[in-house]
Amino acid sequence: MTSHQVVDETAQPIPGQSRPAADSPPAMAGPSGPAAARPDAELLIAASVLLADAALAAKQAGAELTGALTSWRLGLRALRRPEWAFGAALSCAKALTSPSGLGFGPNGGFAGELARMAGNMTYRRPAAVAMAVDAFALRIEAAAVEHPNLTSPLARRLTDAMVDGNRWEALRALHALVERLGVTRALTTVSPVIMELLALLGLLDENPVNDSFSWVTLAGGVPDTDPFFGLPSSVLRHLNPGPGRAERVEPDSILAKVLRSSCNDIVSYINDIGTLGNHGLVLLRRVRGADGLDRYVLLLPGTSFGLPSNSTPQDLIGAFDGCLRSDTTYTRAARQLLRRAGVPAGSELMFVGHSLGGLTAMNLAMDVDLASTYRITHVVTLGSPIDNKRPADHTTQVISLVNKHDVIPMLDGRGPASPHDVPADWVELTWLDESYDYPLSHAPQAYSDTLRGEMAHHRDRVNALIAAYDGEVVGNQPYMLRDK
Questions:
Q1: Average pLDDT of 451-459?
Q2: Measured between alpha carbons, how far is 483 from 264 in angstroms, rounded to an integer?
Q3: What are the CA-CA distances from residue 241 to residues 304, 318, 323, 332, 334 (Å)?
Q4: Is the CB of residue 105 less than 8 Å from the CB of residue 96?
Q5: How far apart are CA 295 and CA 285, in angstroms?
Q6: How large is the angle between the packed helices 194-204 and 153-164, nearest 10 degrees?
Q7: What strands, in cross-sheet order, belong to the sheet with 281-288?
Q8: Cα gap 278→255, rounded to integer Å
């Protein structure tokens, strides 16, 4: 196995900003003035971890006190020792509601959740929430060290309003940011802290049913609800219910021309994915190695940004479904493809995917039945939010390529300021390049151009890792995937 390596490089300065001179001391714009020393991002993240742990512990303490206060055992004890029971109940209630205790911390159980919802709707902020907000604020500060556009007055106005829970001011700040920069650049500016901002929204609004998203994000888990309404991921299952279908198709003249010169090279794979488009086409390749063995590569493109739902698995509903679940229409169609193609059991497989395609590659690798049928040797992803997923086979080599201007890879909750790391046996290669604005920064062409240019050493690194798939291409078969 390849040992864990996270390589983080900056290819270009952020547009509109000059690179500081080598002998210039680091500085950061902000409320304390442009000459203020840049804070240490690692210290900020470490402090945010301590606050997050304290917030989760306070929340758990509130749940346990609520459980004790509403337990039938307390009522039974009250029959025998009423004075003791009254004193215990009074102490629990004081600890749960006192500003010097848990603030307003009841939660858990029927009675606790009713009290929590009532407190949420009346702006009674528990100590756990206050500490969680501070933890997210520190993450935002840490992200600003590497992404100085977050310290611009308009971006700072937005993040400060979100930390304060002032949604109207946040909306005004967001409107001003979009008016000044445009939608795409405004989105790119806040993208490093998008999960933190969504978590703050869930914690500080009046909606009592969307808090789960925030707490799971704080703990580094995988949110299974949306941040706005608290809808569970099971809703997406009903919106994306297709069994999946795979049909052989013939390549058009453009795709056929690209495939004739394709080879086992990460840039070549990205160009193939870009040519496939995002309207349902995928490609299964059969490669005969020098050892005489046939190996297979499945190329999986990303999302079609048109209607929320279309007849293929490559739609927005499928993208959200792939983030939250592993059994999706895309994975079901891909499994049917492998069966229809007659890929022999025990064959070595490599999945290469961009965006939703990378998510689907990891979701396929998570399938225990698939991992026991084939040997899934590599999962290579480009701009995919996969950090909260794990392959079923621990020997599968995961290679994640991320342009740090790209919004999409951060949707797994692990942004630049996240304290959570990827597993030790993953290879993660990240960079900042000149494709600043989203969606340009997310396009396959942007990844291809960077890996051909200043990040060519990353290209060499990936090609060395996938060298087992060198050999003669003996089959290129496109398939059209459908929902049903």
A1: 94
A2: 30
A3: 18, 10, 15, 10, 15
A4: yes
A5: 8
A6: 30
A7: 5-10, 427-432, 397-403, 375-382, 348-354, 294-300, 281-288, 472-482, 245-248
A8: 13
Query: For all residues of the chain together, what is the average pLDDT?
Result: 85
Task: For residue 432, give Cα distances in angstroms to 192, 278, 474.
Answer: 12, 25, 37
What distance in Å separates the CA atoms of residue 176 and residue 446, rounded to the nearest whole number? Answer: 29
**Paired tokens of 481:** 């995937």
Whole-angstrom Cα distance, residue 284 to residue 302? 16
The CA distance from 58 to 62, in Å, is 6
How many whole angstroms from its chain centre is CA 192?
11
Determine which helix (DSSP H) or strand (DSSP E) holds 298, and give its type and residue range.
strand 294-300
Q: What's the rounded Cα separation, in Å, for the pair 176 and 157?
A: 10
Measured CA to CA, the distance from residue 70 to residue 27 in angstroms comes to 53
Closest C-alpha among 404, 452, 396, 447 to residue 423: 396
Q: Residue 66 — φ and ψ, nearest 5°?
A: -65, -40
Beta bridge partners of 479: 248, 282
Whole-angstrom distance, CA of residue 317 vs CA of residue 334: 17
Quick one: residue 181, left, alpha or beta (phi over 0 = left, psi -120 to 50 = alpha)?
alpha
CA pair distance 333, 367, nearest whole angstrom: 13
Query: Among residues 359, 373, 369, 243, which one has the least CA distance to residue 296?
Result: 373
Q: Closest by alpha carbon to 205, among 169, 160, 171, 166?
A: 166
Look up residue 47 and give its amino acid: A
User: What number of CA atoms fall less than 13 Å from residue 375's CA on the CB side?
Assistant: 8
Pairing status of strand 397-403 against strand 427-432? parallel
Structure tokens at 12: 């270009």
What tens digit of pLDDT does each residue of 299-314 get? Answer: 999 987 666 677 889 8
Q: Which of 269, 179, 191 is nearest to 439 (CA)?
A: 191
Identity of the amino acid at 107: N
pLDDT score for 479:
97
For 237-251, 358-372, 448-462, which range has the lowest pLDDT when averaged over its residues? 237-251
Question: Cα separation of 400 and 385, whole Å?
Answer: 9
Q: Which residue has the tokens 């700072």?
A: 156
Which of 175, 142, 146 lies closest to 158 in space, CA to CA?
175
Taking a C-beta distance cutoff of 8 angstroms, is the pair 128, 134 a contact?
Answer: no
Read off φ and ψ for residue 431, nearest 5 degrees: -160, 165
> To which residue do tokens 């291809």 refer?
448
Q: Which two tokens stand for residue 177?
A: 């940011």
Which strand (E) or helix (H) includes residue 130? helix 127-146
CA gap 450, 433 in Å, rounded: 7
Distances (CA, A) of 346 to 161, 265, 464: 55, 24, 23
